């Protein structure tokens, strides 16, 4: 039940586009690399720059929130309407490391516009996608004649996402009252393609562990003892081999219990996406697809739980051979989880499974490296429908659905604040996240602005 | 049909014992560490010292044989009897590295006699065991009144055994005419225990390889791609898991074809040895036995072929986790072989097996790191019977049989010279080969002298 004339939004964006891009370029010049201690001051400067900019945009409340690591930025713009829903937008102001010596065509911290693209570290991940909210809310106000947004708008922009968000769960928990909302919108993802606008409806969860296996007290001679005592490298390998069955399904007993299977309609929607498996394989720099029987590649990476070996190491790694039975073997395993799976339960299942598979004479220790819950928004959720409508208006195209195979801080918002999490991103796969020559497509960036200009009005009149 | 009065041998040894031990101590003071380039001159000095000593012992021919690495010593003492068999004794004059800082009670290159033991690097491995042949042949001559041994005696003492004998096969091949013999006797092994004299009747062979597996062209994100492309770490682990069946038998098709199984009598002889599995496990610093079903621990390490993982490495090895699918995985495998197995055939079988087990999308490369053939002397071989008789006379005890699980240059003598290889060693497991406080038991060292004093007479009258 939108009342915003779309042409007014577009006119406002047109008039303000140059100033908006100029401001974004200024922010992109701050090398807010959270992983580099030498850039700590830059990360802080980035937070302060953003807080000042949000204040200038009109947010009546802007705050720097300290953490044991890098600071986050919080901003709030109340609607003034007691019936208005509250929306929390999430993004991050830190960026991946980048150096022109890595192979960039131009300085990663000196933004350059070329062929309708803005090149800079953080252009897509995530400064550009945070920043479209600043112009978006202004366009929403200008086009509707309002002095405050139709929703109570909150922004939380963290400074450690590229370092694994070590302090984010605690920050959200400590500030849960200030962050209270009806829905969280994460602007740190992408869409299928420039001509295929999509909304992500979920991310996989994650449970990671290290399993250490101990055999002989020291490396022993494989001639003197080989074939007569257990070899921890062999046993580590057998554990890995026992992770999957012949259908590439995870063979840990109970692993699939409770998994929310894809509805037939969701499978149809995935299948309708213009997916080219060969092109996808090139993106994966891989040479064949392989995964759970009975599921397509997109289903496997988006909607099915998996087990992967991220590392295995034991014994001799130098040139030539060394005839030893190694004393120890080590495994790094990660489990991607989907809706219906509980990381803590998976941890127990994996621990029992490992225990059951190891022979006498091999001692072991399993260490869990943290866990992230999966999140999933039902397709018929009213806030998701608002996002889809707004995006369709901005893009003039049907909006389709994707999911994200990775895992992220979205789950912390979902779990701590107990709200649904939606994803609104306009980045495309070619944007080069974490790579050289990161860029954002200017057209899409402005479609992001436009989408949010519609979204606040649409959500403001929704029953959440 | 020995004619040597044992008392004359013992008397000769008694008289010469102090001079013999003094000479050995002088040799042990030369730190002939072949693995240390800084000790190259010492290795050469050790060879020259030995050649001079053998000349002084009476060997009419003593030569330094150069190799691309460290020099070997060759000596020859013809019998003069045209019907005399020819015996080639093998040993090595280089030693393992040693430094008092490693934890030695005394300087490893300053021999010390304490409680009937001579402590020094090389005391047992292998200078002591080479050196007993010098006094042994003199005792043989003294007790029999001969001016030359009853056999044509040849000695080959290499200088690179502790560095893997890289030039030994080529040396043996190049000098095959000079080394021609009826039987080779390796004095570089041990016996079961001081009160259980034993003769080793064989060594296992060895085939070593590295298998490199290649998946994605670079590490890829396990969130974005996990569960949908093959993971080389997983495939490496599956290869390892497929190496053995549930009975711990090697599952490479054809691996056991042609294997010479233990005769019932040999199994009985093994079973009669005073073997304490718990004590053996302590030596193996391991916590349980595990091996081929249907075989005892001694059978497994001495007489059965095996497959072991010596190293496996792939992906992330640092602290914490890293959610990647690794680009590569690497395996170091070694196969111990027994009589009836051919290393080249095993290489082909393993290559085919690996090929069969890898899925589409995983490329691989297999690199063989050299091969050693197994060797085995039948229990009823007349030269073996001579050794057993001579040892029984020296020790005054029944002589039992062992085998050696490891692999060594003995196989080169067997293969290049096409002769049976016997093992005559007096070292015991507590002698600390390659470890700190290496020692030799003086009583056993002199039993070695006595054994060879009887052996040349016994062999001289044998039909080989």
Task: Note the topology.
2 copies of one chain form a homodimer.
Chain A: H1 6-28, H2 40-57, E1 61-65, E2 72-77, E3 86-92, E4 112-114, E5 117-119, H3 127-144, E6 152-158, H4 168-174, H5 176-179, E7 183-186, E8 198-203, E9 205-214, E10 220-221, H6 222-225, H7 232-241, H8 264-272, H9 277-283, H10 297-303, E11 306-315, E12 324-325, E13 328-337, H11 343-357, E14 363-372, E15 375-376, H12 382-395, E16 400-404, H13 410-417, E17 421-423, E18 439-441, H14 442-460
Parallel strand pairs in A: 3-6, 3-7, 7-17, 8-16
Antiparallel strand pairs in A: 1-2, 2-6, 4-5, 5-18, 8-15, 9-13, 9-14, 10-12, 11-13
Helix pairs in contact in A: 1-3, 1-14, 3-14, 4-13, 12-14
Description of the structure:
The structure is a homodimer of 464-residue chains. Chain A has 464 residues and is of the alpha+beta class. Chain A has two domains: 6-203 and 375-460, Aminopeptidase (3-Layer(aba) Sandwich), CATH 3.40.630; 205-259 and 305-372, Alpha-Beta Plaits (2-Layer Sandwich), CATH 3.30.70.360. Chain A contains 14 helices and 18 strands. Chain A has helices spanning 6-28, 40-57, 127-144, 168-174, 176-179, 222-225, 232-241, 264-272, 277-283, 297-303, 343-357, 382-395, 410-417, 442-460; strands spanning 61-65, 72-77, 86-92, 112-114, 117-119, 152-158, 183-186, 198-203, 205-214, 220-221, 306-315, 324-325, 328-337, 363-372, 375-376, 400-404, 421-423, 439-441. In chain A, the strands form five sheets. Chain A has a six-stranded mixed beta sheet with strand order 1-2-6-3-7-17, with helices on both faces. In chain A, α1 runs antiparallel to α3 (127-144). The first copy, chain A, is globular, with a radius of gyration of 24 Å. The mean pLDDT of chain A is 95. Chains A and B meet through β9, β10, α6, α7 and α10 of A and β9, β10, α6, α7 and α10 of B. Chains A, B: Residues 202-360 form the Peptidase M20 dimerisation domain. Chains A, B: Keywords: Hydrolase, Metal-binding, Protease. Chains A, B: InterPro entries: Cyt/Met_Dipeptidase, Peptidase_M20, Peptidase_M20_dimer. Chains A, B: GO terms for molecular function: metal ion binding; peptidase activity.
